[in-house]
Amino acid sequence: MDEASSPDFDRLLAFLERLPAIDLPAGARSIGRGRFANGNWWVKFRLDPDHPLAWRHVQELGFVLNLLSVEERLPTIFKPVSPPPYLNGGVEFLSWIIESTHAEFPPDLCAEWLEGRLPRPVENLAEWKFASEQD
Q1: CB contact at 8 A, 61 and 78
Q2: Residues in CB range of 51: below 8 A, 6 or more apart
Q3: Which domain of life does this protein belong to (predicted)?
Q4: 94 pLDDT exceeds 80?
Q5: Which letter does DSSP use for residue 43 in this model?
Q6: Which residue among 21, 35, 57, 123 has its CA within the 20 to 30 Å range from the CA of 79?
Q7: What is the pLDDT of residue 1?
Q8: Average of pLDDT values for 113-134?
Q9: What are the structural domains of the chain?
Q10: Residues 30-49: pLDDT tens digits?
Q11: Which residues sit opposite 44 in a β-bridge?
Protein backbone atom coordinates (compact mmCIF):
# COMPACT_ATOMS: atom_id res chain seq x y z
CA MET A 1 0.00 0.00 0.00
CA ASP A 2 1.25 3.48 -0.84
CA GLU A 3 2.14 5.30 2.38
CA ALA A 4 0.19 8.38 1.24
CA SER A 5 -3.00 6.38 0.82
CA SER A 6 -2.79 4.76 4.24
CA PRO A 7 -5.96 4.92 6.35
CA ASP A 8 -4.51 7.47 8.77
CA PHE A 9 -5.13 10.15 6.09
CA ASP A 10 -8.84 9.29 5.76
CA ARG A 11 -10.13 11.34 8.69
CA LEU A 12 -8.11 14.45 7.80
CA LEU A 13 -9.11 14.28 4.13
CA ALA A 14 -12.77 13.79 5.03
CA PHE A 15 -12.60 16.81 7.34
CA LEU A 16 -10.92 19.05 4.75
CA GLU A 17 -13.48 18.03 2.11
CA ARG A 18 -16.23 19.44 4.36
CA LEU A 19 -14.72 22.94 4.58
CA PRO A 20 -17.18 25.27 2.83
CA ALA A 21 -14.50 27.18 0.90
CA ILE A 22 -12.42 24.21 -0.24
CA ASP A 23 -11.99 23.93 -4.01
CA LEU A 24 -12.49 20.33 -5.15
CA PRO A 25 -12.65 20.34 -8.98
CA ALA A 26 -11.66 16.65 -9.07
CA GLY A 27 -13.46 15.66 -5.87
CA ALA A 28 -11.38 14.11 -3.10
CA ARG A 29 -8.50 13.61 -5.55
CA SER A 30 -8.06 17.40 -5.53
CA ILE A 31 -6.33 17.09 -2.15
CA GLY A 32 -2.73 16.01 -2.57
CA ARG A 33 -0.98 14.08 0.16
CA GLY A 34 2.22 12.28 0.83
CA ARG A 35 5.02 11.40 3.19
CA PHE A 36 8.61 12.54 3.38
CA ALA A 37 11.48 10.08 3.82
CA ASN A 38 11.67 11.00 7.53
CA GLY A 39 8.04 9.90 8.11
CA ASN A 40 6.53 13.38 8.25
CA TRP A 41 3.44 13.87 6.09
CA TRP A 42 1.76 16.64 4.12
CA VAL A 43 -1.60 17.50 2.55
CA LYS A 44 -2.07 20.16 -0.12
CA PHE A 45 -5.35 21.76 -1.20
CA ARG A 46 -6.88 24.85 -2.72
CA LEU A 47 -9.44 27.21 -1.30
CA ASP A 48 -11.87 29.05 -3.56
CA PRO A 49 -10.55 32.64 -3.31
CA ASP A 50 -14.01 33.99 -4.17
CA HIS A 51 -15.77 32.14 -1.37
CA PRO A 52 -16.68 34.52 1.48
CA LEU A 53 -15.14 32.14 4.04
CA ALA A 54 -11.83 31.49 2.28
CA TRP A 55 -9.76 33.89 4.36
CA ARG A 56 -11.62 32.88 7.52
CA HIS A 57 -10.53 29.29 6.82
CA VAL A 58 -6.94 30.50 6.45
CA GLN A 59 -7.20 32.35 9.75
CA GLU A 60 -8.73 29.42 11.65
CA LEU A 61 -6.40 26.78 10.19
CA GLY A 62 -3.39 29.04 10.73
CA PHE A 63 -4.32 29.59 14.36
CA VAL A 64 -4.91 25.94 15.23
CA LEU A 65 -2.04 24.48 13.22
CA ASN A 66 0.61 27.19 13.75
CA LEU A 67 -0.09 28.96 17.03
CA LEU A 68 -2.72 27.25 19.17
CA SER A 69 -0.47 27.50 22.22
CA VAL A 70 2.72 29.50 22.56
CA GLU A 71 4.11 27.05 25.12
CA GLU A 72 3.07 23.83 23.38
CA ARG A 73 2.54 24.14 19.65
CA LEU A 74 1.19 21.38 17.49
CA PRO A 75 3.87 19.67 15.40
CA THR A 76 2.38 21.12 12.22
CA ILE A 77 2.90 23.98 9.81
CA PHE A 78 0.14 25.56 7.71
CA LYS A 79 1.36 27.76 4.87
CA PRO A 80 0.65 28.93 1.34
CA VAL A 81 2.54 27.53 -1.63
CA SER A 82 2.56 28.87 -5.17
CA PRO A 83 4.28 28.43 -8.50
CA PRO A 84 6.21 31.52 -9.60
CA PRO A 85 3.62 34.34 -9.85
CA TYR A 86 5.34 35.76 -12.95
CA LEU A 87 4.62 32.51 -14.81
CA ASN A 88 1.05 31.79 -13.74
CA GLY A 89 -0.10 34.84 -11.79
CA GLY A 90 -3.26 35.20 -9.80
CA VAL A 91 -4.66 33.67 -6.65
CA GLU A 92 -6.19 30.81 -8.64
CA PHE A 93 -2.79 29.08 -8.46
CA LEU A 94 -2.34 29.55 -4.71
CA SER A 95 -2.46 26.33 -2.70
CA TRP A 96 -2.29 25.62 1.02
CA ILE A 97 -0.25 22.94 2.68
CA ILE A 98 -0.35 21.33 6.10
CA GLU A 99 2.93 19.63 7.01
CA SER A 100 3.78 17.63 10.09
CA THR A 101 7.07 18.31 11.81
CA HIS A 102 7.12 15.06 13.81
CA ALA A 103 6.42 11.65 12.30
CA GLU A 104 4.74 10.56 15.55
CA PHE A 105 1.89 13.06 14.92
CA PRO A 106 -0.33 11.24 12.39
CA PRO A 107 -2.83 12.93 10.05
CA ASP A 108 -5.82 11.46 11.88
CA LEU A 109 -4.69 13.13 15.12
CA CYS A 110 -4.37 16.43 13.23
CA ALA A 111 -7.99 15.95 12.09
CA GLU A 112 -9.02 15.40 15.71
CA TRP A 113 -7.43 18.72 16.75
CA LEU A 114 -9.12 20.57 13.87
CA GLU A 115 -12.51 18.96 14.52
CA GLY A 116 -12.32 20.03 18.16
CA ARG A 117 -11.43 23.65 17.46
CA LEU A 118 -13.04 24.74 14.19
CA PRO A 119 -16.77 25.51 13.94
CA ARG A 120 -19.09 22.50 14.31
CA PRO A 121 -20.38 21.18 12.11
CA VAL A 122 -17.64 22.56 9.89
CA GLU A 123 -19.79 22.52 6.73
CA ASN A 124 -22.53 24.67 8.33
CA LEU A 125 -22.03 28.23 7.07
CA ALA A 126 -23.91 29.72 10.02
CA GLU A 127 -21.42 28.19 12.46
CA TRP A 128 -18.63 30.26 10.90
CA LYS A 129 -20.16 33.56 12.00
CA PHE A 130 -18.56 35.43 14.86
CA ALA A 131 -20.83 36.13 17.83
CA SER A 132 -20.98 39.80 16.78
CA GLU A 133 -22.33 38.73 13.37
CA GLN A 134 -25.23 36.66 14.73
CA ASP A 135 -28.72 37.87 13.82
Answers
A1: yes
A2: 20, 21
A3: Bacteria
A4: yes
A5: E
A6: 123
A7: 35
A8: 89
A9: 3-129 (3.90.1150)
A10: 999 999 999 999 999 999 99
A11: 32, 97
